[in-house]
Write the structure tokens for this entry.
Amino acid sequence: MKRMVFLLTILFTLIAGVALGKPPQAPVEASSHQKPLSGNIQIALGMKQMDDWWEPVEDHGEFGILADFQPRGFPLSLAVEGLVSASEEDVVFRGSIFTLTGETTELCIGIKKYFETGSRLYPFIGGGVAFIDAEAKATKGDIAVTVSDNAVGFWIGG
């Protein structure tokens, strides 16, 4: 959980730097008045369905902040995404009630290529590396048993 807070703090700091700047303008001829950087910030809300090993906490609610930054004159954007998901369920096992929780944290870094359509719709394709942490915990009172793991993988989106 501490690692998730740390990663989200870094992501929010990066986003705040772009959000407090002037919003990106339509492309114009290069001049000294242009910002050296443009970007996008998006919020993701949804569900993540885990495999049967996570049962009964396999259906997670998910929240994420997706950001990308593009230096002026460069055809690709640097993408930084942070996502968290969690689920909690009370279960009865051998006559006792246990609280089961499952959590995942993802930090994704990569590139995106946006395509101009002449409208407000900007399709893109992107990909990169994903750093993933997962934790499952069973709790009864002050006693908790935790299983955790992490992995590095790839992400592709568009």
